[in-house]
Amino acid sequence: MKIALVDFMKVLNIIPDGYIGHSVGELGCAYIDGCLTAEETILAAYYRGLASKEAELIPGYMAAIGLGYNDIKSMCPPEIDVACHNSFNSSTISGPEKIVKQFVQELKEKNIFARAVNVANIAYHSRYIKPAAPKLLEYLQQLITEPKLRSSKWVSSSVPESEWESSLGRYSSAEYHTNNLLSPVLFEESTKYVPNNAIVIEIAPHGLLQAIIKKSFGPNCIHISLTLRGHPNSHEFLLASVGKMFAAGLLPKVSNLYPPVQYPVSRGTASLSSLVTWDHSEIWSSVLDMDLDTVEGLSRAVDPNITISLNQEQDRMLEGHKIFGKVILPVSCLL
């Protein structure tokens, strides 16, 4: 779906100034950046899952925590790793199933938000996923034979900023995407590069990160999600998101979503006139319907006659309103 949504944005001619991926979302960055083709992106995601399945891993669990990395890191038991630095007040932990569940319960008893999440019984972005690394690296090296340089638009969330100029950080390589699986997600650190007045568009199967995005970025940022889990009409939601882009100041080329119209159109082309109707749901009163006694500042004693003279400067503009050579009072004047 991410590939389809990226292609959708390209069709609309919405070109991003930068992009950040969260976890496996960096494969989407590689596709946007031109480092991977659509086929390579799909296969890379497949190999990530295949390597995780083939490796001998302990039963793992993850959990969403309502504390930032700096607050939660000292509270975690030694067996638990902080897998994702989401924002200043949000993080994800990863570790053995029993220990994660027990720690989640302890946090709840302290009135700290904590929710255990079963991600296929795998503790991603922790020391416990390392057995899958050799197999994933082997698969990706066969797939990505000529790694491409990442552009400056792609802000890495898996390699620390201090290592961006290293060979690992510069290329969208098999090593880079294997490291993505093993390393913590540095989303909070990477989002500091997003301007406070940015238009942030989430490209994902559903708007999972909207809550995090709204808390991470400045109050002047505009947040737009292209999808929403549970929405009864995904196409409608997607097109409404395009409308939000336009309202935010972007210029999506909506005409590209439709086939070009060849003129003149054929005689069988359906007319749109029947779709345009008058809205009679409201009744507006004219001056003739109003009770002048109830209108403040008006009196029936006032002369209702109005004199209009083209010799007067204020009325001279009416001279240009002619029908068949005769000056006619515009109907709008009666309003």
UniProtKB/TrEMBL annotation:
GO terms for biological process: fatty acid biosynthetic process. InterPro entries: Ac_transferase_dom_sf, Acyl_transferase_dom, Acyl_Trfase/lysoPLipase, Malonyl_transacylase_ACP-bd, PKS_NRPS_Biosynth_Enz. SUPFAM superfamilies: FabD/lysophospholipase-like, Probable ACP-binding domain of malonyl-CoA ACP transacylase. Gene3D superfamilies: 3.30.70.3290, Malonyl-Coenzyme A Acyl Carrier Protein, domain 2 (3.40.366.10). Residues 1-231 form the Malonyl-CoA:ACP transacylase (MAT) domain. SMART domains: PKS_AT (SM00827). This is Malonyl-CoA:ACP transacylase (MAT) domain-containing protein. It comes from Timema douglasi (Walking stick).
